Recover the amino acids of this structure.
């Protein structure tokens, strides 16, 4: 709902619109400038800290000039936001703020000569305004020890009605003369110990409908000595060209996983108990290897085969670890089987149970 740009019944309109959107204000106009009003911070027009009262006629309101034209940006250019809730000195400070419920804080005017209450600030106030950033998502997959694997982090800013809704292009950091449109979209990734920061190659620009994607490889994280497996968190930011500014985006971080190589877990068990047998004067081990297959191609397994006797591990092959490629002989749903035949070493005996230890598994193609 948008409050009309008129002075007719303005106080009544403000009261009814605020209460209709979840606020709790009374007939006293001073209650409109309190937290109870639950003012939508993303509305372009709302009460802000601006030094002049400028009681305007409707005609004057439509003909504002110079800095008065942008009164809605407030004296500091921050459009009513508290900059201390937006920019942080270090990535650790930003992460801490996010983990404790970071949100852009809206600052109400305090009243008086320097920050007067103006009912006119509510003209064109939009209760349905929202953050320009629509989503922050992660896609792709990182696999431990496969350093070329990567994840893609995408932020999407959806089009909003710029007549009544703030955009990031409207916000001017108080130590610059340009808006956030001249900053880069970036991400901060942490494993809970180390951090990694990367930015997009282009500034956000003046388009209010935009998307940026940053590709991060496992190698980049490894270069920062970050965890090679497990859960990590990515925080969206705006930053400058030297990655020395950490300005939060008003949207939640995303979590993602560096997973264990599925190939390493594919070999799960021997499908049957396999014993050393004597056949034609030669001792051999015959067995069926079972594993969970994820992809539709064969895998080569590097493994050590051994038996246990009197608590001692005895290797079955002389060229350990051994690498053999097996094709699928049959399968039940996602469980695949391969027949294995290995020559037994001279110090094994008929009846010894056959074990394997998988060292690595990779594509057999």
């Amino acid at each position: 709902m948008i409050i009309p740009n008129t002075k007719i019944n303005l106080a009544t309109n403000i009261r009814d619109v605020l209460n209709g959107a979840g606020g709790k204000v009374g007939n006293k106009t001073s209650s409109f400038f309190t937290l109870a009003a639950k003012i939508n911070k993303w509305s372009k027009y709302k009460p802000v800290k601006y030094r002049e009262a400028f009681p305007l006629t409707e005609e004057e309101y439509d003909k504002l000039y110079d800095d008065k034209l942008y009164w809605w940006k407030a004296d500091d250019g921050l459009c009513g936001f508290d900059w201390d809730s937006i920019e942080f000195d270090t990535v650790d400070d930003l992460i801490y703020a996010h983990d404790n419920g970071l949100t852009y804080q809206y600052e109400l005017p305090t009243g008086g000569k320097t920050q007067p209450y103006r009912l006119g600030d509510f003209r064109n106030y939009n209760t349905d305004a929202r953050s320009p950033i629509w989503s922050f998502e992660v896609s792709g997959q990182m696999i431990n020890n496969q350093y070329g694997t990567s994840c893609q982090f995408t932020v999407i800013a959806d089009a909003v009605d710029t007549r009544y809704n703030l955009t990031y292009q409207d916000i001017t950091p108080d130590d610059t003369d340009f808006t956030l449109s001249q900053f880069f979209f970036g991400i901060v990734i942490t494993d809970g110990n180390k951090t990694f920061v990367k930015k997009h190659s282009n500034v956000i620009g003046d388009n209010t409908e935009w998307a940026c994607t940053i590709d991060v490889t496992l190698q980049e994280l490894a270069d920062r000595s970050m965890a090679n497996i497990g859960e990590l968190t990515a925080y969206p930011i705006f930053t400058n060209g030297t990655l020395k500014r950490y300005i939060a985006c008003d949207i939640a971080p995303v979590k993602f996983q560096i997973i264990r190589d599925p190939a390493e877990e594919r070999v799960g068990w021997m499908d049957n108990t396999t014993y050393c047998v004597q056949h034609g004067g030669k001792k051999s081990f015959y067995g069926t290897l079972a594993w969970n297959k994820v992809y539709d191609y064969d895998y080569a397994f590097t493994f050590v085969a051994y038996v246990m006797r009197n608590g001692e591990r005895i290797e079955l092959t002389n060229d350990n670890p051994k690498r053999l490629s097996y094709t699928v002989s049959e399968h039940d749903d996602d469980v695949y089987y391969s027949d294995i035949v290995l020559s037994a070493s001279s110090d094994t005996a008929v009846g010894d149970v056959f074990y394997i230890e998988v060292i690595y598994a990779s594509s057999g193609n």
Summary: The chain has five helices and 18 strands. The chain has three domains: 1-129, 131-260, 263-363.
